[in-house]
Inverse folding.
């Protein structure tokens, strides 16, 4: 059985939640403007793919599931460079995310991306069979630059599947079609990975990666409440200056700004979900430590393009995850 | 649970009692009248005080014995003299635990207090300055950069303004946490990046003499001490004591002792039963033999005749904090 879903979003949280079947994703929008995103999810029997597009610069934190190797890439060449784990990546590079890591993917503008995940043992077996090379998942996230032809093949195949999922999901759902496409995708992945060498990762880079992972764990442990600088440093077990260097490198902003953005987004989430009859902007703002309401309203409007009171009054219009189709989570449970 | 409040005092004793509730020991000799306002905010880890005094005074303070305490002068009509040193705008004092010192002001002034558990300060030092911070063995006068000093002042004043005008908002745990978390790095920067003002040996000796002076006075309440006896008890020459007093409190030792005795009479007048006690008797008991002169001096310092103090219905003597 193949799971197919295509969705459009105006709420980043729902978007991230829907990607989440391949591993938890969290994110923070770092630019102001109108947000919209689309997502295509196709889960074949072994290989799962995601194809997304979002309109604003953001930092997304992706933690792959232990049982799956993730390969990420830009779906076309005509895109601004992205930063993955603090290092600028060109659109012609493919990222192989290590198992058990958490990666910050930062974009500076609208982005179109693709991802494929598959069990590591599949990758190993396919590597032997197709290229005669053992493709073991890396212990640290690495980046490879595949040959032009291999990259083109992966991209066009990925795009074709995305197109089918949107226009003719019933065809894609046919088991023989699905099997053929899955095999073609597997082959394209292996050819991409086999055609390139991994780049060297410095020990400082690894040290920063560990700090960033602990940072996200600390934030995750308090996912619904504000976290402040001193608490974050204590939880991560590092000094402010180290954390500041890491965040500058990986997130392109100070940790203070990052925590502030996070609080703003938490407030926004509550404003969009709350019942205007039962709660007030003041109540939500103060519960995230914003006590100067005038300043909060100005900052909110600058960031989200609408006033907090408008956000509170507006009925939630975003499709809840899994509304148009079976939830990816349910699919995973039943599979 | 965070809390905050503000209170205006017309009685010096209540003001002192409130400061003592905040673990700040204080003995104030007013020099002309009295009116003060105390704003306090108890956040999660920080205790903030803003002491707004509308009168010139000499205070003998002791900082909390178990809290790291930082004080600074927020605003003053004249240069305040703390522990014998003229405090410049932006200077802050980082006290040793339970430090005793004199503060003298020649006019209205506002001074601020930030106190916290030393264990927290230690941790915040490691986080924001990469080294632990602990209260110094001897109190220090620090001179942060003007921008660092201004930031600390601004955040402290902001919290106190909120305590004064919107106490309910500050009681929200997330609001007090946000404010506190802004204040902490500003405080650490002031404590670590500032220049420490050197204290000379002579200054240190003088500070010791002044504390000894207070100890002797405390051990001899009631009757006035004669200068030769006083000097012998302290173990200094008359000249040294005079110059120390001029430096630390701006008045002669005799004048200071007189102010302290007047204050003792005042406390006795408050406690006495107006039906049975007499002003003359209480004054005599504290060494004032000429009643007319006593009444004149009393009135000049406290702004009311002693008989009014005696007849006044006592208000609640202890108030929050």
């Amino acid at each position: 059985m193949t799971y197919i879903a295509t969705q459009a979003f105006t709420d980043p949280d729902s978007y991230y939640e829907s990607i989440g079947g391949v591993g938890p994703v969290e994110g923070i929008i770092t630019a102001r403007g109108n947000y919209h995103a689309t997502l295509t999810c196709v889960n074949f029997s072994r290989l799962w793919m995601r194809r997304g597009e979002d309109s604003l610069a953001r930092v997304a934190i992706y933690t792959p599931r232990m049982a799956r190797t993730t390969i990420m890439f830009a779906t076309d060449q005509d895109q601004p460079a992205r930063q993955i784990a603090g290092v600028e990546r060109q659109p012609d590079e493919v990222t192989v995310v290590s198992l058990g890591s958490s990666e910050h993917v930062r974009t500076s503008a609208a982005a179109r991306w693709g991802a494929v995940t598959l069990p590591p043992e599949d990758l190993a077996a396919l590597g032997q069979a197709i290229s005669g090379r053992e493709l073991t998942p890396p212990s640290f996230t690495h980046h490879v630059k595949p040959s032009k032809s291999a990259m083109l093949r992966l991209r066009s195949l990925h795009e074709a599947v995305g197109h089918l999922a949107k226009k003719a999901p019933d065809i894609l759902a046919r088991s023989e079609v699905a099997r053929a496409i899955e095999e073609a995708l597997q082959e394209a992945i292996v050819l991409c990975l086999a055609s390139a060498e991994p780049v060297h990762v410095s020990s400082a880079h690894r040290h920063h990666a560990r700090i960033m992972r602990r940072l996200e764990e600390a934030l995750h442990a308090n996912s619904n409440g504000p976290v402040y600088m001193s608490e974050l440093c204590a939880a991560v077990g590092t000094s402010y200056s180290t954390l500041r260097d890491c965040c500058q490198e990986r997130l392109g902003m100070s940790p203070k700004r990052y925590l502030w953005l996070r609080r703003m987004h938490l407030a926004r989430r509550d404003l969009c979900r709350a019942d205007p009859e039962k709660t007030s902007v003041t109540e939500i703002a103060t519960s995230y430590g914003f006590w100067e309401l005038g300043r909060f309203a100005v900052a909110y409007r600058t960031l989200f393009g609408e006033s907090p009171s408008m956000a509170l009054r507006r009925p939630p219009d975003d499709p809840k995850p899994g509304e148009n189709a079976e939830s990816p989570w349910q699919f995973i449970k039943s599979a | 649970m965070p809390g905050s409040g503000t209170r205006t005092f017309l009685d010096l004793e209540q003001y002192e009692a409130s400061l003592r509730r905040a673990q700040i020991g204080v003995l104030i000799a007013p020099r002309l009248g009295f009116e003060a306002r105390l704003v306090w905010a108890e956040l999660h880890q920080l205790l903030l005080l803003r002491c707004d005094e509308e009168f010139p005074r000499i205070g003998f303070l002791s900082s909390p014995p178990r809290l790291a305490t930082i004080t600074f002068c927020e605003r003053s009509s004249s240069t305040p003299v703390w522990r014998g040193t003229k405090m410049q705008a932006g200077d802050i004092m980082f006290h040793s635990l339970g430090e005793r010192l004199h503060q003298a002001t020649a006019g209205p002034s506002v001074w601020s207090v930030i106190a916290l558990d030393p264990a927290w300060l230690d941790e915040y030092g490691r986080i924001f300055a990469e080294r632990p911070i602990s209260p110094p063995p001897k109190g220090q006068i620090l001179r942060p950069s003007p921008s660092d000093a201004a930031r600390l002042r601004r955040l402290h004043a902001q919290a106190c303004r909120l305590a004064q005008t919107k106490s309910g908002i500050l009681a929200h745990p997330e609001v007090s946490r946000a404010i506190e978390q802004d204040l902490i790095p500003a405080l650490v920067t002031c404590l670590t990046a500032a220049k420490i003002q050197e204290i000379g040996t002579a200054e240190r000796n003088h500070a010791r003499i002044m504390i000894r002076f207070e100890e002797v006075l405390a051990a001899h309440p009631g009757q006035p001490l004669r200068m030769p006896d006083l000097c012998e008890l302290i173990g200094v020459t008359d000249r040294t004591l005079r110059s120390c007093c001029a430096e630390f409190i701006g008045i002669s030792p005799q004048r200071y002792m007189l102010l302290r005795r007047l204050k003792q009479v005042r406390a006795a007048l408050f406690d006495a039963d107006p039906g049975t006690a007499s002003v003359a008797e209480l004054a005599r008991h504290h060494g004032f033999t000429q009643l007319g002169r006593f009444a004149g001096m009393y009135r000049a310092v406290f702004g009311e005749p002693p008989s009014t103090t005696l007849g006044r219905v006592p208000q609640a003597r202890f108030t929050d904090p």
In short: Confidence is low (pLDDT under 50) at residues 316-321 of chain B. The interface with chain A takes residues 123-124, 126-128, 130, 162, 169-170, 172, 174-175, 177-179, 181, 184-185 of chain B (CB under 8 Å). Residues 254 and 302 of chain B are 18 Å apart (CA to CA). The longest helix of chain B spans residues 173-193.
